[in-house]
Design a protein that fits this description.
The chain is of the alpha+beta class. It is 35% helix and 15% strand.
Length: 399
């Protein structure tokens, strides 16, 4: 694969420019008539953007783990398995506003016929996710090591299609869906913004509504903190919470920054309480409507907000010696309350009352969801040992 046309927008996307690769050099050039930038980090300009690796914005949605393996099994023999080829195979099926096609070729055809949400929630077929992976891998431009696919689902015949991410897990992380369902419920009840999410009846699937598509079916721009910090996917653990606060100040709209910084602290406190060692740069992001006429040296005028919380799990029940994903004060050790409070004051600009209210909201949400954890523990035998360890974490106060 040598050249790819990059599109922006939704519904009737337009070509923004061309991406090419040769001798480990990746080059993206905007068309002379491009109207919309592809990234907050790549404003419109005449000069090309050249990198030694694939540009972070184009790396963002490359599948990982089981999804990438499935794609390569399906397509490598016929098309190859390099990154640009995978982007063109995924085409319009990406998180955010970007789509890809072979140079001078039209965008791929629309997706397969949609399924019904209820069919996934109430299906008892143990092989259901494997079948979904085989059927929808080519339509799933979404990152993450845990297996997942993008699906358009019909909630009710009288309503428009809704867009979801459907996740499963491998044998090394049993019942991760129950784990995430509890942790996301805590985040929601603590006042953090989360997408609508469901756990299937057999707990084999965790289904989350996509937050990068609005109520009118229009795709929103989404960029994770790897992109915004100019890092590749493999560098998702190479940063700090302090840098994340700086990223918010740099890329979130001024009027949105106080709430975004407040949410960053509350989420960080929650990640420490549930011992989420996977809270890396790709699990934070910024949402916006578009980057129309965004040029070098200008500040985008559209509202840019912190994305809802996603991929929130407790990792220590599986990995007892797991650490934080990002550093705080130069360390990945789980911090004490005092260290978190210093971060809240000096990097998130919170006062003592705001800090206390955030802590209390998380603690109350934990207490509210202990019955949910106990119910899932009783309902799914395989989740019991994980639930016991998670329960111990949740009832142990933060020093």
């Amino acid at each position: 694969m040598a050249e790819v046309d990059v599109y922006t927008g939704h519904g009737s996307p337009g070509i923004a420019g061309r991406l090419s690769a040769s001798q480990q050099q990746y080059v993206f050039s905007y068309r002379h008539d491009a109207r919309e930038a592809v990234s907050l980090t790549m404003p419109l300009r005449h000069e090309s953007y050249s990198y030694g690796q694939l540009h972070p914005i184009f790396q963002m949605n490359l599948p990982e783990g089981a999804l990438r393996e499935a794609l390569e099994r399906m397509t490598a023999k016929q098309y190859g398995s390099d990154d640009l080829t995978l982007l063109t195979i995924l085409g319009t099926h990406q998180i955010g506003r970007i789509a890809y096609a072979l140079a001078d070729q039209p965008l791929p055809a629309p997706a397969d016929k949609p399924l019904a949400l209820d069919d996934l929630l109430h299906n008892q077929d143990a092989n259901l996710f494997s079948e979904l992976l085989q059927r929808y891998a080519r339509q799933s431009g979404v990152a993450g090591v845990q297996p997942k696919v993008l699906l358009d689902l019909q909630g009710h015949l009288a309503l428009p299609l809704e867009h979801y991410i459907v996740k499963s897990w491998g044998d090394d992380y049993p019942h991760l869906g129950c784990n995430e369902y509890v942790c996301m419920s805590i985040a929601r009840d603590a006042g953090l913004q989360v997408p609508t999410f469901y756990l299937s009846d057999d707990a084999r699937l965790l289904i989350s509504q996509r937050f990068d598509i609005d109520s009118h079916g229009e795709a929103l721009g989404f960029e994770d903190f790897c992109v915004l910090q100019a890092k590749g996917t493999k560098q998702k653990y190479d940063s700090s919470l302090e840098s994340c606060a700086n990223t918010i100040r740099q890329f979130v709209s001024p009027e949105q920054q106080p709430q975004a910084l407040h949410d960053l602290y509350k989420l960080s406190y929650l990640n420490v309480r549930v011992r989420n060692g996977d809270a890396h740069l790709k699990n934070l992001g910024v949402l916006y409507s578009c980057l129309q006429d965004f040029r070098a040296g200008e500040i985008p005028t559209m509202i840019r907000s912190l994305a809802p919380v996603f991929d929130l799990v407790s990792t220590v029940p599986y990995l007892p010696h797991d650490t934080m994903a990002l550093t705080l004060t130069g360390s990945k050790r789980w911090p004490k309350r005092k260290v978190l409070h210093n971060f809240a004051r000096h990097h998130c600009q919170l006062d003592a009352q705001q800090i206390a209210a955030s802590d209390a909201a998380v603690e109350q949400a934990i207490q509210q969801n202990l019955p949910l954890l106990e119910r899932l523990q009783q309902q799914y035998v395989g989740f019991a040992p994980i639930a016991e360890r998670l329960h111990t974490l949740l009832v142990t106060p933060l020093p």
